[in-house]
Amino acid sequence: MDKHNKLLSYNEECMEYQLEEETAQLANLKEELESKMAQIDILQLEIEVIKADHYTKENKQQQVEEERKSRQEALAKDRERLIVELNGAKEALKQRDLMNEYWYSELKEKEEQNTQTKSTLEETNKQLEEVKELNTQLKDESIKVKEDMNLQKATCMSLESVLAESAITKREVLESVTYVLENELQCSICNELFICAVILNCSHTFCKSCIDQWKKSKRDCPNCRSFITSETRVLVLDNFIEKVMPNLPDDLVKSRAKVVQERKAPLYRKS
């Protein structure tokens, strides 16, 4: 852009210099034309004097008349030449004005392009900043989801440990597990045990098919109304439910199998 501006400035200086030269030439031509016109006036005065004296100088008058005609013809030719040169100079000035207009329009167009480019760069930088902020937010949410998954994994491991090491009876274990399943591991949308559990960025967990159906009409969490930006499968919950299902009452197992079959998910079979 600087090189282009310098080129335009140089061209303008050259054109101004040529314009000054041509103006000076026009002034010289004008002075020359005025001088020639003065000469014509002088010749006319001489002709008048010769006419007054023609009765004594008839032969000389003829010579003077021929010289006058010759001078008039020469002056006429000079006048025509000066007029042609003057018209040429005017045409050259007109061309210079057209060139100045062209370069001015080019310069204005370049300035508009630079302004548009600057605006585009500012918009791009703004979008990059927004992307950076979104990446930071997603990283924070990912860390939070991982922490929640670890917490749920620890809860499941704790439950498995209770099942393996506790000395309570099978009935008490089943009652305890059933309570946990019905109160902690149920989807708040369908009120069934999780099927293909997914955890959202807000740490709430739902069945994948339930949250997919929910997102067709809304994009916020059914529980806390936070905007949904990510969802992650929670395999540890699916594995835990699959392991404890064979030890639960038959009616609960059958109900579970029916729901899974309706959603075309893998069946949990009682061993």
From TrEMBL:
Listed Pfam families: zf-C3HC4_3
GO molecular function: histone binding; ubiquitin protein ligase activity; zinc ion binding
Superkingdom of this protein's organism: Eukaryota
Coiled coil regions, renumbered to chain: 12-148
PROSITE patterns xref list: ZF_RING_1 (PS00518), ZF_RING_2 (PS50089)
Keywords of the record: Coiled coil, Metal-binding, Transferase, Ubl conjugation pathway, Zinc, Zinc-finger
Listed GO biological process terms: double-strand break repair; protein K48-linked ubiquitination; ubiquitin-dependent protein catabolic process
Cellular component terms (Gene Ontology): cytosol; nucleus; site of double-strand break; ubiquitin ligase complex
Domain RING-type: 187-225
Protein name: RING-type domain-containing protein
